Each structure stands twice: as C-alpha cells, then as structure tokens.
Amino acid sequence: MLRFFRALGMAWAAMSNTTRLVVGSAAFFAAVSIVGSIQSQQREEAQLAEERRTEEATKDRVQAEKSRRAALTPEQRAAEEAEKARLTKEKEDAAVRAKAAEDARVAEVKRQAAEAEAKRSDWTYSDAADKVSGKTIKNAGLRSENLEFLAFPYSGGTRGNLQIRRHPRFGTDVIFYTSNGQVQCNAYSSCKVHLRVDDKLTMSLSGNPPEDHDPTVVFLNKSVIGTLRKSSKVVLTVSMFQEGERSFEFRTRNLDWK
C-alpha cells in the first residue's frame, strides 16, 4: 500500500500543471456527483421511513378505535351513533344555509345591477347662457352607437347626434346632425327622415334644414320628444349626398326632459 501511494505521488509530481488541473476537476465533479447521489438516496430512505411510520400510526388508530367500539355497551353505541348523526345533520344544514345565503347574495347583486342598468341613461345635459335675453339655453344630447363610413373626403367614420334644445327666444327644437358628410335635404323644402322605434314602429318625419343651410344639420318636429322619452332605442335614417340612406342607432332610454 505504501508503495502504491509513493507511486501515486510520483505520478502526480510528474504531471504538468494543465494535466493536474484536468485530473483535479474531474475528481471534484466526480465527488460532487457521488455526494449528490448519497444525499438523494438518504432523502428517499427518509421519505420511505416516514411513510411507514404514518402507515403504522394509522393502523394503530384503527385498531384502537375497534377496541374502543367493542368495549361499548349497546346503549353507549346507540348514543354515539345518534351524536354522530346529529353532527352530520348540523353540518349539512349549515351547508344548506350557506348556499342559500350565497344564492341570496348573488340574486341581490344581480337585482341591483339590473336596477342600475334600467336607470342608466346615455343622455348628457348642459346649460348655456343666451347673451341676448340673459336667460338659459337647456340642452340634452345623445351620440349614435354606430359610425357610418362614407366615401372620400369623409374619412374616419361619421357619427350621428341628437340634440333637444330649449331656447328662450327660439323655443324648443329637436336637432339631428352628423360629425361630417352632407344630409340630402333641400334648402327650400322639407326632407324625409325615418325613425324606427324599439324595433317595432317606423315613423316618417319631415325634416327641415337650418337657416344657414348647414348640410350636416336637420331640424325635426318637437313632437318627437314624446317618442324619445318613451323609447329605449331609435334608429334614425336619412339620405346623404351621393351616399344613399344611412342609419344611426341611439340608446334613448331614460330621457329626463320636462
């Protein structure tokens, strides 16, 4: 053995530094691998031992319960079964009550959401001052849900707008106007406007251009306010210059206008 270690020492001394580095690295990684394998095996053994202890403890508890049950009198056994049934019933009743409470909570949340949705309005309201009379101009406005895409030069889509205006000097008007494009309305006579109400009734109305002949604006009869107040949705259709009929959908529910 002594000769072996002497020979090993002589072999090591005869190695170059590079060879020593290679041999040393190989030995290091081999040692790391061996240690890792040992640790892995130890973990597996510890896990198996823990599983065996758990299994033995479970068997002991089962056997102890059997022995305890065997020692009970019929009356004690009946009382124990009755208590077990009572606890099971209490647990089931508690689960039923919890489910009923959760169902009630969900139903209330849905009811409140439906109530809020039913009260929701897309109308916007604003006031402005009439500098001539010194009185207030009241407005209610609504934008269409959809865009209509017209040919050049009207890019980006055209949106319809409804406005109800109460002016201290000019009275009450219902105005339809577009963000761009030209409504086909004769400057010196009325034009046809179709109004479909809640997907049921279609009305044909007479529209009139404004005094300044703005082609994006049409004035409607103020009697339309009653229809808007009672409806949830209207689709307003007008003819547009070189574009044919175009329809704009409005969510009109819950108009607050007196």
From TrEMBL:
It comes from Aromatoleum aromaticum (strain DSM 19018 / LMG 30748 / EbN1) (Azoarcus sp. (strain EbN1)). Residues 46-94 are annotated as: Disordered. This is Uncharacterized protein. Residues 46-68, 77-94 have a biased composition (Basic and acidic residues).
